[in-house]
Specification:
single chain; mainly alpha; Growth Hormone, Chain: A
Amino acid sequence: MIEQQSPFRIANYRAFWLARLCMTLAQYAMLLIIGWQTYNLARDAGMSVGGASGQLALIGLLQFAPLFVLTPFSGLAADRFDRRNLARMAILLQLACAGALAWLTYDNAITLNALFLVAVALGVARAFSGPPLSALAPNLVPPAMLPQAIALSSIAWQVGMIVGPAVGGYFYDVAPHLPYAVASGLFVLAIVALGFIGAVPRVEIDNQQGPISQIREGLVYVMHNKMVLGSITLDLFAVFLAGATALFPVYARDILHVGAPGLAQLTMAPAIGAAASASWFSVRPLKTNVGPKMLWAVAIFGVATIIFGLSTSMPLSLAMLFVVGCADMFSVFIRQSLIQLHTPNDKRGRVSAVSQMTISASNEFGDFFSGSLAFLLGPVTAVVLGGIGAVITVATWSQIFPVLRATKSFDPPDHLLEDGQNRDHTGD
């Protein structure tokens, strides 16, 4: 029926979408300025380009460590407790981080140690926000709407990635503390929006098992489901190797010479490409040959990364980053849809936690890897080698996981539909 064609007709989903948009806007405004302040403080202290790149690597490592340690427990919590409350508490911690950085920057008291401490706190907060939100979304729409709901949710994420860096880069030029102040307000809005989501039913899990056994159950499910395992690990290794985001401050200051506004543009370019892909999928959902198309998208991601790494032209760099974003969103849309539709509701929190661990390994730990490689070999070599590694990963995964090449549609296994794990909890 027409009234069920758009997830936005569901009140709970509208509140969820707004909360995700506000949270992502705030996160990316903060992350851009944290990286920019870290790199500039290091350079102004007399460090070389390589040494300052190493400080960016450390920021990535400090965010990754708590994510890696805590995400399995947050995934279990997402299956046992109210996912809305967990997300609200995680956003509240991010609000505290934004407020602290706003005050320190305004007072001209910002230091590398303060930025490192906040990086750890943000890692903790993101560990406890990702699994609950990922696991919550499928409970808000009927299964037929889920791919479209994921595309729309990705639009919120990508719009946040586009506008967030603009908030960070351009507001920083007005007043260095302003991006953090605006981020604080956005986190407040996200918490309020989550409060408008009505109660959603949760499938009870076996409480006879201990926490470690329950966490292990989620890991075992991922390991045994080749579709889920292949999709998750493809993203892990490709983005881990080819992630150039951590080196954007290096390119902005010392390669392209475009300053803070240029840094904002570099960060926005892949997000604009990703938003374009997500917008397309929201009106024209992908239905056929989803596995092979995911593999091709990751290969294109790697090739565009190579060209960006070699570029000394700002227009060419922005164009390649736009392609990177399009290809990344293409693969992310397929991967998220496959994982959510091929996972029973009582394991979604824990499987989402495994997925977030790999995303964190590819992003935050990937930042550490890229920064470390840039310290050893130089930023250009680091980015180019990463892009080559992503292409090799695609060729390897297409052989290790033939199920990815063979997957033609998003249709979940019949037993999941029969279990009723995707029931419509609309909250209209």
